[in-house]
Amino acid sequence: MPTTHLLYLHGFRSSPSSTKARIVAAWLQRSCPGVVWCCPQLAPSPRVAMDCVLTQIADWPARSMAVIGSSLGGFYATVVAQRLGCKAVLLNPAIEPARDLLHHVGEIKAWHSDERFEFRAEFIQELRAMHPARITDPQRYYAVIAKGDEVLDWREMAARYAGCRMELLEGGDHALSDFTSHLPRIAQFLELPG
Q1: pLDDT tens per residue across span 59-70
Q2: Long-range contacts at 163-171 (CB < 8 A, ≥ 24 apart)
Q3: Which residues are bridge partners to 168 per DSSP?
Q4: Which one in 69, 76, 106, 138 has a CA-CA gap of 20 to 30 Å to 14?
Q5: pTM here?
Q6: CATH number of the domain at 5-190, please?
Q7: How many Å separate Cα 17 from the centre of its chain?
Q8: Closest by alpha carbon to 169, among 142, 188, 148, 187?
Q9: DSSP per residue, 85-131
Q10: For the chain, what are the domain ranges?
Q11: pLDDT at 116
């Protein structure tokens, strides 16, 4: 079923101003202006972030909505897709954020502004509490994974999404600097004009 509503979830310390979020927004505006678009600023608290996301999309049709998530946003996208049964595109998704973000507890600067925020110790437990046990309906997932990711281990990502549609890139980086080149395949998966 073609995607009518698209949610984009950014990564840790990121924002709706991220390069990939802006590329997707511009692509939708140009190629599929009828698609409902939502790209919220995610709160530092995973529980608050997820509550806000689920509230914003509460009246969306699960059968024709999809979510794109990058890094920590990929983890959140998996949570949303598992909960609602929608399609998900995962861009170098975080697999074990409770483990990987443990050393980020404290005050942190955002990537796209001078804003600082506090990443609290209790947020680690919030991540653990929402961790999906396993991937169900793997055909609903499309993962783009770069072996050259300097932040996350591509082997963990590939193992987590084994059985899902996957683009395993030789080289590349965590930011997916060549992201625009992946849009046609993402559009095909989401059944949107490329």
Answers
A1: 999 999 999 999
A2: 163/135, 163/138, 164/135, 164/138, 164/139, 165/138, 165/139, 165/141, 165/189, 166/142, 167/142, 167/143, 169/144, 169/145, 171/146, 171/147
A3: 145
A4: 138
A5: 0.94
A6: 3.40.50.1820
A7: 14
A8: 148
A9: --EEEEES--S-HHHHTGGG-EEEE-SSSS-EEEE-THHHHHHHHH-
A10: 5-190
A11: 77
